[in-house]
Automatic annotation (TrEMBL):
GO terms for cellular component: nucleus. It holds the Pfam family Alba. Transmembrane segments: none annotated. GO terms for molecular function: RNA binding. Signal peptide: none annotated. Residues 35-97 form the DNA/RNA-binding protein Alba-like domain. SUPFAM superfamilies: AlbA-like. This is Alba.
Length: 142
């Protein structure tokens, strides 16, 4: 029960919401959690989250990917893409259940939650800068 309250409080103190504010699509939470990406199932493309994670990793040495319920698969996929491309290493995975209030039925609903902490690899900056050069080269030729 305390976890649900802490989660609700953290979400309520969000500092930035990207795109649809009512949907709380992506939220950078609190002062100590500016490196957290919360993923939802609101039909954002998978690579939206991959590219967002890359941008966050350029600013921070580690990022935390977080999701509830049906969005867990998306978070795991994003983490695996970053790891397989040599951009991130897995530092910690934490699973739990949280209680959220169902507005329609007015009762407590338990949902699975996952938090994946990823750190930059040693060659992150080199890989990202090389990727930018490769992408910019075709534009220069046109």
């Amino acid at each position: 029960m305390a976890t649900a309250t802490a989660t609700a409080t953290a979400t309520a103190t969000a500092t930035a919401v990207v795109n649809e504010p009512a949907a709380a699509e992506v939220v950078a939470v609190g002062r100590s959690k500016r490196n957290r990406i919360q993923v939802s199932t609101n039909k954002k493309p998978l690579f939206f989250y991959v590219n967002l994670a890359k941008r966050y990793m350029q600013q921070h040495n580690e990022i935390e990917l977080s999701a509830l319920g049906m969005a867990i698969g998306t978070v795991v996929t994003v983490a695996e893409i970053l790891k397989n491309n040599g951009l991130a290493t897995e530092k910690k995975i934490q699973t739990s259940t949280v209680g959220t209030k169902d507005e329609a039925k007015g009762r407590l609903v338990r949902k699975a939650k996952i938090e994946i902490l990823l750190g930059k690899t040693e060659n992150f900056n080199h890989l990202v800068s090389t990727n930018k050069v490769v992408r910019e080269a075709p534009e220069a030729e046109e």
